[in-house]
Design a protein that fits this description.
Elements (H helix, E strand, L loop, with lengths): L2 E12 L2 E10 L9 E6 L8 H8 L3 E11 L7 E11 L6 E4 L2 E4 L29 H11 L6 H4 L7
Antiparallel strand pairs: 1-2, 3-5, 4-5, 6-7
């Protein structure tokens, strides 16, 4: 994967050793809406069914190839807990979704940046100057923003809190 230097330098301490680091981002351009995109859903821990994920992805586009488990490279026939699917997007998918009572991570090449502190797009947590948004408030804002696209049962356990 080609990386783009952002120029933001920071220090990190790992095992009592200090390192000077520079923020790197993938160079992948955002996919054009309507293009087929391979979506990765990492580390589901088998807690969500592929059909549930297809239902969420279908809210942002057309699922071309249903969600399936990724086979492990070193163990033939064994599945990892990562899932993939192919979809034609109508709109970009946030990096984290409140799906069926779980925090569902979504990744695809060129996906717009999303901060996991304020949940806004266009920057990452390290560069965030906004106040932190609690997860429950993100879920509420998410449901309010996409009203009609997301049904309450798709949210799961958090619907009781809202």
């Amino acid at each position: 994967m080609d990386l783009l230097k952002v120029g933001k330098k920071f220090e990190a301490v790992v095992d009592d050793h200090e390192y000077e680091c520079e923020l790197l981002l993938p160079k992948d351009p955002p996919p054009k809406l309507g293009e087929e995109v391979t979506i990765t859903i990492p580390k589901t821990r088998f807690k969500l069914k592929p059909e549930q994920i297809d239902r969420w992805i279908g809210r942002f586009g057309v699922v071309v190839s249903s969600t399936k488990f990724v086979e492990a490279d070193d163990l033939r026939g064994m599945n990892t807990d990562d899932l993939t699917c192919v979809a034609k997007l109508r709109k970009h998918i946030p990096g984290v979704l409140p799906a069926f009572g779980r925090k569902l991570s979504i990744r695809y090449p060129g996906q717009p940046l999303q901060c996991n502190k304020c949940y806004m797009f266009g920057h990452l947590r390290k560069a965030c100057e906004k106040e932190a948004l609690e997860w429950v408030n993100y879920v509420k804002a998410f449901v309010d923003e996409v009203d009609g696209i997301v049904t309450r049962d798709m949210i799961g356990e958090w619907q009781r809190i809202l």
